[in-house]
TrEMBL record:
Coiled-coil features, chain-numbered ranges: none
Pfam families: HTH_Crp_2
Annotated HTH crp-type domain residues: 147-213
InterPro entries (UniProt xref): cNMP-bd_dom_sf, Env_Response_Regulators, HTH_CRP, RmlC-like_jellyroll, WH_DNA-bd_sf
Species this chain originates from: Halomonas rhizosphaerae
PROSITE patterns to which the protein is assigned, alphabetical: HTH_CRP_2
Name used for this protein in its record: Crp/Fnr family transcriptional regulator
Superkingdom of the organism of origin: Bacteria
Keyword terms: DNA-binding, Transcription, Transcription regulation
Amino acid sequence: MKPSTLGPITNHLIDSLPRQDRASLLADCEVIDLEFGEVITEPGGRILHVHFPLNSFISLIANLSDGEQLEVAMVGSEGMYGMPLILGLDKSPLRALVQGAGPALRLPTIVFGRHLEQSPALQVLLKRYLYVLMHQLSRVAACSHFHQVEARLARWLLMTQDRAHSDQLHLTHEFLAMMLGVRRAGITLAAMALQARRLISYHRGDITVLDRAGLIEASCGCYAADRSLYRRVITDGGAP
């Protein structure tokens, strides 16, 4: 994790705050570069900093006792890492792994707590985001059980593309298999099927999204449902 320089703010949660609340929060934030593969917190570990990704993103991974792992949520420029703090808890139930390198805003949990106490707007916004994140967690569980690997892979690639802000992704079969909780062979077949439909190109871990609209059509309905809920609850500030 390295210091970075501040570019245009692209974190949607921070951009959604009233101007005074946003300025106050940004004044206490440090801009850092998250590095690919960096572990921010292990399960049960204390959350020392809150992170607002800009052009980076973080995988939240459930670790089982037999060593199996499954990504259950993803946090990019639409969100924040450190949500247990909203509930008054400072330990993470999940592994937080940097999946997309890039800049993020960071501040210590103590400082974040002060802002949370002083800003009703921040409280309301993050409670709404917590609702969205809970929805994402529950939908991943159902999606993993009921939907085909090809549709789930299409959804996951779209989610990654949204947070990477790029059509170019570097994702190995081994990493994709771990994220989706399936065998490597299943990922290979699913990626080949998407490539045969000219939705993506794939070569040695380098994936290029060729047809986003087609990839959305190939994905399960979970992708559209997640985006719709975020827009209603966060962007529009309405009811779920």
